[in-house]
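Tokens as discussed.
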């Protein structure tokens, strides 16, 4: 090279954009926050209404079982509709599926609003509305989880998942608080607020444009396409292990189902306190999600996920034994933070490993496992509480979560060994 030869400058790599710098994702994120606000508000209002009505004539254990039945009636529609929901997300415009789902949720809430206005009551009405709401959400979860990644460049995906989690947890923090205080004003206010939030979510969702990347439609025989998605999860051990870890840990370790019993009869803090308790997990989770959106986990992802599930179980045990509101809030925040780490790793693994054309069906399977852990977890908590009391039920669940974290590290060594998301591609 001569002294006068000009060396071409090396182009600097373009900085990775923040997901919220993308207008389409901003509308998606806002719609998600509003939807979760409405959904979490609905959950806390419904749980308090059922438990409070049951305590008029039943003792604490029998009333706890009534809460558990809410989980059962919400799980059954998801179980039945889940395969069709996943296929719908891969076959039709995912934006349309999300919008129709929100409309269905709104209709369910409108029925309870009308019931509250009329002054009617009865557990059957609550359970029917819960089942209808869950049926609509069965289509919402796989479609919205598959829609978000298609709105951002692939290199922004891990950060977008963390930002999406922040949005969900913001709704999870505020929804229970405003729901608890709104119910203090009356059921009309509480259910009216839920409906208004879902209307606003639907309006924001209408602003989401076409995704950046076209998605191949899952045409062909519906049954064949559904089986194809299930088979992909079954043979991809990284996915199966991560999804099932969440299922069994939360199935046994979830303490949130019994929070009405803790608020009313153990901590004695009423519906306003119930809102604080419901929000505490999201406070821990959103703090962690904000950290992850700025400092995504890049190393040791498998061991960190397993360790987070173990921490989730330990915090659950301490919460179960607590009789102090402040210690209870701290432990709920800790288990929320631990759960957020597990959720972040699991959801990123699902998106990285799964082809875009199959994300709806794989997401539906993941949503089914999540719903099973949440709703059947409520049923399990209620049943165990009916036998040994709410405190015994929560402590038992926390111990089981710790045991499951250890067992999954042995059953699925792929989870224990994976260090980076790139290593999991195609695993």
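Sequence:
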């Amino acid at each position: 090279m001569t002294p006068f030869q000009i060396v071409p400058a090396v182009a600097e790599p373009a900085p990775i954009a923040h997901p919220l710098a993308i207008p389409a994702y901003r509308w998606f994120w806002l719609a998600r926050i509003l939807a979760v606000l409405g959904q979490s508000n609905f959950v806390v209002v419904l749980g308090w209404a059922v438990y409070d009505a049951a305590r008029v004539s039943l003792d604490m254990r029998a009333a706890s079982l009534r809460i558990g039945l809410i989980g059962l009636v919400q799980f059954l529609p998801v179980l039945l509709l889940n395969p069709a929901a996943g296929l719908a997300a891969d076959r039709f415009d995912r934006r349309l599926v999300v919008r129709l789902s929100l409309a269905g949720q709104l209709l369910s809430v409108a029925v309870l609003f009308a019931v509250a206005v009329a002054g009617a009551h009865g557990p059957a009405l609550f359970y029917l509305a819960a089942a209808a709401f869950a049926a609509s959400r069965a289509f919402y979860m796989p479609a919205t989880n598959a829609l978000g990644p298609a709105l951002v460049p692939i290199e922004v995906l891990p950060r977008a998942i963390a930002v999406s989690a922040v949005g969900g947890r913001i709704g999870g923090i505020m929804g229970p608080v405003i729901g608890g205080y709104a119910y203090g004003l009356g059921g009309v206010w509480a259910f009216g607020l839920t409906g208004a939030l879902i209307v606003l979510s639907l309006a924001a969702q209408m602003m989401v444009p076409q995704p950046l990347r076209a998605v191949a439609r899952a045409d062909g025989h519906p049954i064949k396409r559904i089986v194809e998605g299930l088979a992909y999860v079954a043979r991809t051990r990284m996915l199966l292990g991560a999804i099932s870890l969440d299922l069994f840990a939360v199935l046994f370790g979830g303490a949130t189902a019994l929070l009405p019993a803790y608020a009313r009869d153990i901590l004695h803090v009423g519906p306003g306190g119930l809102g604080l308790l419901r929000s505490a997990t999201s406070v821990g989770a959103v703090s962690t999600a904000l950290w992850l959106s700025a400092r995504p986990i890049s190393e040791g992802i498998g061991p960190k996920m397993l360790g987070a599930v173990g921490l989730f179980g330990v915090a659950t045990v301490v919460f179960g034994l607590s009789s102090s509101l402040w210690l209870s809030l701290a432990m709920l925040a800790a288990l929320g933070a631990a759960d957020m780490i597990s959720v972040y790793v699991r959801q990123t693994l699902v998106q990285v490993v799964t082809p875009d054309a199959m994300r709806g069906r794989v997401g539906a399977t993941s949503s089914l496992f999540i719903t099973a852990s949440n709703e059947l977890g409520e049923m399990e908590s209620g049943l165990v509480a009916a036998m040994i009391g709410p405190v015994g039920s929560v402590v038992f669940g926390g111990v089981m979560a710790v045991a499951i974290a250890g067992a999954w590290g042995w059953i699925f060594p792929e989870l224990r060994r994976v260090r980076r998301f790139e290593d999991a591609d195609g695993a």
